[in-house]
Amino acid sequence: MIAVRDSFGKALLELGRENKDVVVLDADLASSTRTIYFAKEYPDRFFEMGIAEQNMMGVAAGLASVGKIPFVTTFAVFATKRACDQVTISVAYPSLNVKIIGAYTGLLSGYTGATHQAIEDISVMRAIPNMIVIDPADAEEMRQAVKIIAQHKGPVYMRETRDEWPDLFDKSYEFEIGKAAEVCSGSDATIIACGVMTSEAAKASKILSKENIGVRVINMSTVKPIDKDMIIRCAKETGAIVTAENHNIYGGLGSAVSEVLAEEFPTPLLRIGIKDTFGESGSNEDLLKKYNMDAGYIASAVKRVIKRKKVQ
Amino acid sequence: MKIVEEKIIDDLKEKAKIIRCHIVEMIYRAQVGHPGGSLSAADILTALYFYILSIDPKNPDWEDRDRFVLSKGHAATALYSTLAERGFFPTDLLFTFGQIGSLLQVHPDKNKVPGIDASTGALGQGLSIALGMALGARVDGKKYWVYALIGDGEIQEGQIWEAAMCTAHYKVTNLITILDYNKVQLMGPVSKIMEVSPVKDKWLSFGWNVIEIDGHDMKQIINSIYEAKRVKQKPTIIIAHTIKGKGISYMEGTHEWHGKAPCKEELEIAIKELTNSV
User: Fold this and answer.
1) Which sequence positions of A are flagged as catalytic?
2) Considering only CB atoms, which chain A residues are within 8 Å of B122?
């Protein structure tokens, strides 16, 4: 098990070796985002931009418009909100080939608390045309995603989890933008999750299997464009859906799944995530527990949604 | 100093007149647009596109071309008129400006119009984009120049000063910034809305080389760019003192014509004044 951010940093270094067009910009956080590996190896392609995210985003747009593939990294809160208009107008409107990496996802921000907890980044990025939004589940998916998003031509927003997180995938897995993956099988209900919540969902599925409840778990790491077919298929086959995201339940994965279900195949649904409240400092484990996002809570939500299925 | 022949200066002045006529006619026909800041920038754009920039209208995406970023994107009519006159697209297209389905958006879209290097309009963003292009040239070992035209109201945006700091920090000399200092913004004089003076001292204190010129004097525009190209180790800004609405008596120096379209009678006066001017 390695920290997801280390997986990112190493993958970026490897990408830099393979593709000379890759350049990296960071806002005085290279040791936190792990772009420091790239910076040390390729100082001529690394730009320390200081604590000035709006300019950083614009410079990345300029670099992309002359053929570079910029990876812009900073904390997710600053990448998506401090520089939101620059992301929208300088990067997304002309559909420039900029990869925006938002470090420290959701509540899991290394004890820093509400000021550094990105709880609305997915919502904001998802509403910007041309933008792809990805929240990888583990170190292996992150490793693969770095390469894949560099091959995709156009803007991408990808979340970067700070810490070690349980491994779900091995090298046989193949990450693809817009394609969800089944992590656990089952037919009583489906948990659709992204980012760190996929492994919490897998734990929930394990808990429920002891009670003979078979819960399918889907890793929906690409939140936009969302894998509609997978959502509809799971709704049809299992009849009940729980979403789980390390994000406000407004505007993120839960909303995206709800939109698909409401329009295509109405199905009982419960959303797990941050319930429209600011976070606080604390360990990852304590935060997930306090904000009702841990495996135990997800398991209880699955039972509730299954009951709703029966009365219909 | 390379001396520019008088004949060339005269030709440029004539070209600027034509461009000014296009600007008011476009805005008249569309009944939308920003005449004041387009007219103040017209001489600078003419000098750039007809004398300075290394570009090829037949190959607008030529990768070694010089780049130009109109950071004050609301002056789009000036840029469109200049590009059309320079042969990037037919002048007929100018009169679709702002209409539904037109390539010519009220603020420029780089993906729609040949010859436009950056989509701008959200003030404060273009200088950073130009800086990114200049740094890209450095990474690739390319020799092209990047030019950015910023507005005086625009430098009220914090991002401009982030970019100013960064450009000096990286000692970027292949980016030449021009400030269209017309001293008037949408709601009134810049000094009343949010004073930006002393402009020269601000840029000097950010580590820039500063040249001040009359932004309606072709010779001064061209010579200042030559001078800027010779400066080593620090970026240059050319503070071009201009007149908002330059060339049309009733528009000059007023904020009312920042974003207003002339009526038929006003258009006729404007065209008459422009064609009769020296």
Assistant:
1) 53
2) 85-86, 89-90
Q: How many domains does chain A have?
A: 2
Tell me: pLDDT of B1 over 70: no
Structure tokens at B36: 């004041």
Q: Determine contact: A162 vs chain B, CB below 8 A.
A: no
Name the residue type at position A2: I
DSSP state, A164? B
Confidence of residue B4 (pLDDT cuts 50, 70, 90): confident
For residues A10 and A12, what is the distance between their CA atoms, to the nearest angstrom?
A: 5
Which chain A residues touch B162 with a CB distance below 8 Å? 52, 54-55
Contacts of B128 in chain A (CB under 8 A): 54-59, 61-62, 86, 90
β-sheet with A69-75: strand ranges across: A46-48, A22-26, A69-75, A99-103, A156-160, A132-134, A222-224
**pLDDT one-digit tens code per residue, A58-91:** 999 999 999 999 999 999 999 999 999 999 999 9
Query: Is position A197 within any domain?
Result: yes
Q: Are residues A29 and A82 in the same domain?
A: yes
Provide ipTM, 2 decimals. Answer: 0.97
- pTM, two decimals, is 0.97
What's the CATH code of the domain at A155?
Answer: 3.40.50.970
Mutate to test the interface with A, among B135, B160, B161, B167 (most CBs of A within 10 A): B135
Q: What is the mean pLDDT of residues B127-137?
A: 98
Both A154 and A204 in one domain: the answer is no
Nearest-angstrom CA–CA distance, A131 and A177: 12
Same-domain pairing of A11 and A113? yes
Please check whether residue A66 is in contact with residue B138, taking contact to mean a CB–CB distance below 8 angstroms: no
Residue B179 phi/psi, 5-degree rounding, is: -100, 120
Tokens of A270: 């419960």
Q: What is the pLDDT of residues B154-207, one digit of tens each?
A: 999 999 999 999 999 999 999 999 999 999 999 999 999 999 999 999 999 999
A253 is in which domain, residue-wise? 181-311
Q: If we measure between CA atoms, which residue out of A96, A92, A100 comes closest to residue A146?
A: A100
pLDDT digits (tens, 9 = 90+) for A222-258: 999 999 999 999 999 999 999 999 999 999 999 999 9
The Cβ of residue B1 has, within 10 Å, a number of other Cβ atoms equal to 7
> Looking at residue A2, what is its pLDDT?
93
- CB hemisphere CA count around A94 (13 angstroms): 30
Q: Which domains does chain B have, with CATH numbers?
A: 6-276 (3.40.50.970)
